[in-house]
């Protein structure tokens, strides 16, 4: 099969794709829930560009396709064993499936056009990220003035010290900033010879530091703190580096209900003595994880069905930190997999992760492995502490970030297949 990325498509499609990618950080800063739509738009533009020129469709990404199809089947059949057939239905999967299709279209389209997109995206995306950062910092310093203009009055807490309504946008900025940073340092040796790129990098670092110290989004702070550490420690130089990473991830996922209960037995009192953890509701989160873990183990093999936590009203809550007996989602994707799909889901997700990481090590060079694993692990860490994995904006953000990552340093992908 010939590499369609070497055949020049119509510029209008490329410009449209690059514009949407560069616009994504600004959309995230202004209205992050709108991110759910962008992967589908980018993907349709890219595929449309190929079909309009009667070129081949983008190369099938087998690992990604296997993962999306497997998860989709699991979602669709989970109502068969759901704890209540009146509430565990196909309604939720039918809303999620188009989003997953959009992520596949986006990833394959960005990969197919990566060589043509790289020059535009490498220039436009950092600009979009810097503009988004300025929007966010303005809101943080000026009592959400831009947020109020976009969303209208009365759409947030009236107390100026509560800025949690900005957290989705700030978290999205954190991931886009990682990618922009990778673009800007892609060739570190030539950086001093390119004043504009050098100044953009300095501006990004200063802006991100200001947001880091001002934001209430601890997930974003964790990204900024751990991303350099992940990039430094990941064994990208080791040919079998994917093996221990996959084993550790699988062990944590399969053991998640037991780990959660053990954490609740010892850590909440300690976390209460650390202001940063207490401010981030760490004791409450651990209590949530504990009662969800215990409920998940009541049906350990297949779980309770998709979106179970939204409909369970009688969790066994100790009521030490968590007042209600209900919770929308576990704030932890590992436990969400367990309570919805049980051990079957845990094993399936472990297999998908192992296949994906193995492909990274087989197909990419050390620089690309370092960039890809940093982005992937940043997502995993955030997903293990905060948002529900079926939130549409979160799926859209993940789809965009992983697709854009295929454009970074495109020369490293030549004659190779991504995951």
Q: Gist?
A:
By secondary structure, the protein is mainly alpha-helical. It is built from 17 helices and no strands. Residues 1-6 and 411-419 have low confidence and may be disordered.
Give the tags.
single chain; 419 residues; mainly alpha; 67% helix; globular; disordered N terminus; disordered C terminus
Can you describe this structure?
With 419 residues, the chain is an all-alpha fold. It has a domain at 21-233 and 390-412. Helices cover 67% and strands 0% of the residues. The chain has helices at residues 11-30, 38-52, 62-77, 91-112, 114-141, 145-151, 167-184, 195-214, 218-233, 242-254, 256-272, 275-279, 282-296, 308-311, 333-363, 366-383, 392-405. Helix 9 packs antiparallel against helix 16 (366-383) and helix 16 (366-383) runs antiparallel to helix 17. The longest helix has 31 residues, at 333-363. The protein is globular and about 60 Å long.
> What's the story with the biggest beta sheet?
none
Query: How large a portion of the residues is in β-strands, by DSSP E?
Result: under 5%
- Helix coverage percent: 55-70%
- What order do the helices and strands follow? HHHHHHHHHHHHHHHHH
- Strand elements, count: 0
Distance between the termini: 17 Å
Low-confidence runs: 1-6, 411-419
Secondary-structure content class:
mainly alpha
The Rg value, from CA coordinates, equals 21 Å
Shape annotation: globular
In DSSP terms, counting alpha (H) and pi (I) runs of 4 or more, how many helices? 17
Mean pLDDT: 90
Layout of SSEs?
Elements: H1 11-30, H2 38-52, H3 62-77, H4 91-112, H5 114-141, H6 145-151, H7 167-184, H8 195-214, H9 218-233, H10 242-254, H11 256-272, H12 275-279, H13 282-296, H14 308-311, H15 333-363, H16 366-383, H17 392-405
């Amino acid at each position: 099969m010939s590499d369609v990325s070497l055949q020049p498509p119509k510029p209008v499609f490329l410009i449209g794709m690059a514009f949407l990618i560069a616009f994504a950080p600004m959309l995230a800063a202004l209205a992050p829930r709108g991110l759910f739509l962008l992967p589908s738009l980018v993907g349709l533009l890219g595929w449309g560009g190929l079909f309009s020129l009667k070129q081949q469709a983008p190369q099938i990404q087998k690992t990604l396709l296997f993962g999306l199809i497997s998860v989709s089947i699991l979602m669709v059949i989970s109502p068969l064993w759901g704890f209540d057939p009146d509430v565990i239905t196909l309604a939720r999967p039918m809303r999620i499936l188009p989003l997953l299709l959009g992520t596949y279209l986006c990833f394959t389209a960005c990969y197919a056009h990566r060589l043509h997109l790289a020059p535009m995206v490498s220039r436009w995306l950092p600009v979009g990220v810097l503009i988004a950062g300025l929007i966010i910092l303005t809101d943080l310093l000026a009592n959400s003035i831009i947020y109020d203009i976009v969303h209208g009055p009365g759409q947030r807490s009236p107390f100026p010290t509560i800025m949690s309504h900005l957290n989705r946008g700030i978290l999205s900025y954190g991931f886009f900033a990682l990618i922009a940073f990778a673009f800007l340092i892609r060739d570190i040796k030539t950086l001093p010879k390119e004043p504009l790129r050098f100044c953009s990098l300095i501006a990004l670092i200063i802006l991100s530091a200001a947001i880091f110290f001002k934001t209430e989004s601890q997930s974003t702070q964790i990204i900024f703190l751990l991303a350099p550490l992940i990039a430094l420690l990941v064994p990208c130089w080791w040919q079998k580096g994917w093996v221990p990473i996959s084993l550790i991830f699988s062990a944590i996922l399969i053991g998640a209900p037991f780990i959660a209960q053990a954490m609740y037995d010892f850590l909440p009192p300690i976390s209460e003595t650390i202001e940063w953890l207490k401010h981030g509701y760490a004791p409450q989160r651990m209590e949530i994880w504990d009662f969800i873990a215990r409920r998940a183990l009541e049906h350990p093999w297949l779980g309770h069905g998709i979106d179970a936590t939204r409909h369970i009203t009688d969790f066994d809550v100790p009521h030490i930190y968590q007042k209600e007996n209900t919770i929308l989602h576990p704030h932890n994707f590992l436990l969400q997999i367990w309570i919805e799909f049980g051990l079957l889901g845990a094993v399936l997700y472990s297999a998908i992760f192992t296949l994906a990481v193995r492909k990274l090590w087989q197909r990419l060079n050390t620089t690309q492995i370092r960039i890809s694993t940093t982005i992937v692990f940043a997502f995993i860490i955030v997903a293990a502490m905060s948002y529900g994995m079926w939130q549409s904006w979160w799926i859209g953000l993940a789809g965009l970030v992983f697709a854009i990552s295929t454009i970074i340093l495109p020369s490293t992908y030549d004659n190779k297949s991504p995951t």
